[in-house]
Write a structure and sequence with these properties.
The complex is a heterodimer.
Chain A lengths: L1 H8 L1 H8 L5 H4 L26 H5 L12 E7 L3 H14 L3 E6 L6 H7 L3 E4 L6 H15 L3 E4 L11 H9 L5 E5 L11 H18 L11 E4 H6 L12 H9 L4 E5 L16 H19 L11
Helix pairs in contact in A: 5-6, 9-11, 9-12, 11-12
Chain B lengths: L2 H23 L5 H19 L2 H10 L5 H48 L11
Helix pairs in contact in B: 1-2, 3-4
The chains are: A alpha/beta, B mainly alpha.
Chain lengths: ~300, ~120
């Protein structure tokens, strides 16, 4: 077993460099992590911006206020009253978007804290899972007709300075879904061993299937275009934990996805969805099954999905 | 097969079917599920009257020299199928409940926008 784990683990860094589909532009960003890959950029694949702090570099020429009303920040939260207030304040300081909290049946004061900080609260009548909470946000966003939706975790793991850069990738038409990857910078939070094994495995599978490099399939820090979150209203979207299978679903539906580097830190509350021994095993099994059936289904047509 | 055994099985089948009728009458079991269980009861009832030669013939077709084992296997298959059927329905209901819950949260939020009443009524203090 240790040898199996090690063999899964060792490709983490190697994988960052070696996947042939890697767009050359990205390679520059992770020089600190891995040697540059000079494979040619695949056709139709968008290249991610090279710099870690997109915001700082283009801040002068870009008016953040012009984004007001065009998008929303979506935060799924389950018993997050401790950090939520601070997270909301930091998000407010960095972007002019509306803030939508999906309270997934919390038993603490999550909803109250969110309202006190001026966020819209969608409160589930009972706990339904991370994916279901995201989907509630998608349904709401589609109703409100936002152009872009940036989803971010409630536990303070994600640095809110990247909300605007993520949203701009969508608003400027570079891609339909932009995922913030913690591995493109090559510093900061490194997840626990078992979790990393899953990330490498499913990142690799997703990379092969979608013909682009996927380094962080578990990242919940994403920006989605209106077409994508409208598509995700469908029952095809998993209610438990969306992961590599959703990236594959997006690819099969003809959407363009990309990754840009973001900074992440370990969750402050430390309550991961993937803790314990049985849950990671179930997670691996579920994800493999989910990827298989996603590939076996007819490619979905985003225009003809019943909601 | 001894007469005693046939009586026992017959009794079980009768009790099963009466229970189903009673559950439906009390509306604790919906008709759409009752038919499956009634079918199971009828099959057991019929099985009570099949002569031993018939059971042997069935076992022979299945390549079994042991009729009870063959019958047991058939029963096991039927039960497995039933369970699978329930899992399918359960999955559909989970999906429906999820969609309902999401709709409720969105409707609730839009209600609060229009009329901020005692919005925190159902929230833990």
């Amino acid at each position: 077993m240790p040898t199996l784990l090690q063999s899964l683990m060792s490709p983490l860094n190697a994988q960052l460099a070696s996947t042939p589909e890697a767009p050359t532009e990205v390679a520059a960003a992770e020089d600190s992590v891995a040697p540059t890959s000079d494979a040619p950029t695949s056709e139709g694949i968008e290249a991610a911006p090279t710099e870690g702090g997109t915001e700082e570099d283009s801040e002068e020429s870009f008016d953040v206020e012009s984004l007001r009303g065009r998008g929303a920040v979506l935060i799924p939260a389950y018993n997050e009253e401790q950090c939520l207030g601070e997270v909301l304040d930091r998000i407010r300081a960095h972007c002019p978007f509306d803030i939508v909290i999906v309270d997934d049946g919390s038993v603490d004061k999550t909803a109250k804290v969110a309202r006190a900080h001026g966020a819209t609260v969608l409160r589930h009548p009972f706990n339904m899972g991370y994916g279901a909470a995201l989907q509630t946000g998608y349904k709401y966003a589609a109703k409100r007709d936002y152009e872009v939706l940036v989803q971010i975790d409630a536990d303070g793991q994600h640095d809110p300075t990247y909300i605007v850069p993520l949203a701009r990738r969508i608003l400027e038409g570079h891609s339909d879904a932009c995922v913030g990857s913690r591995f493109l910078i090559g510093e900061g939070y490194i997840p626990p061993l078992a979790r990393r094994a899953g990330m490498v495995l499913f990142g690799k599978i997703a990379s092969i299937v979608t013909h682009r490099r996927v380094t962080d399939p578990t990242s919940g820090y994403q920006a989605l275009s209106r077409r994508v979150f409208t598509f995700f209203k469908s029952d095809l979207f998993p209610a438990d934990y969306p992961d590599a299978d959703v990236l594959i679903l997006l690819y099969r539906a003809g959407f363009r996805a990309e990754e840009i580097p973001v900074a992440m830190r370990a969750s402050v509350t430390g309550q991961s969805m993937h803790g314990g021994i049985l849950r990671p095993m179930f997670y691996v099994f579920k994800m493999l099954l989910s990827i298989c059936v996603t590939l076996l289904r007819e490619p979905p047509d985003p225009e003809r999905i019943p909601h | 097969m001894p007469l005693q055994q046939r009586f026992l099985i017959f009794g079980v089948a009768v009790v099963l079917m009466l229970s189903i009728f009673e559950l439906v009458r009390k509306r604790r079991l919906r008709e759409e599920y009752a038919w499956l269980w009634l079918l199971a009861g009828v099959v057991i009832l019929i099985a009570t009257f099949v002569p031993m030669e018939g059971l042997r013939a069935v076992a022979n077709i299945m390549g079994s020299s042991n009729p009870p084992a063959a019958i047991f296997f058939l029963g096991f298959c039927a039960t497995t199928f039933l369970c699978l059927q329930f899992s399918v329905r359960l999955s559909r209901m989970t999906e429906q409940i999820k969609n309902l819950g999401q709709k409720v949260s969105i409707l609730e939020a839009s209600l609060e926008d229009n009329a901020p009443l005692e919005s925190d009524r159902n929230e833990p203090e």
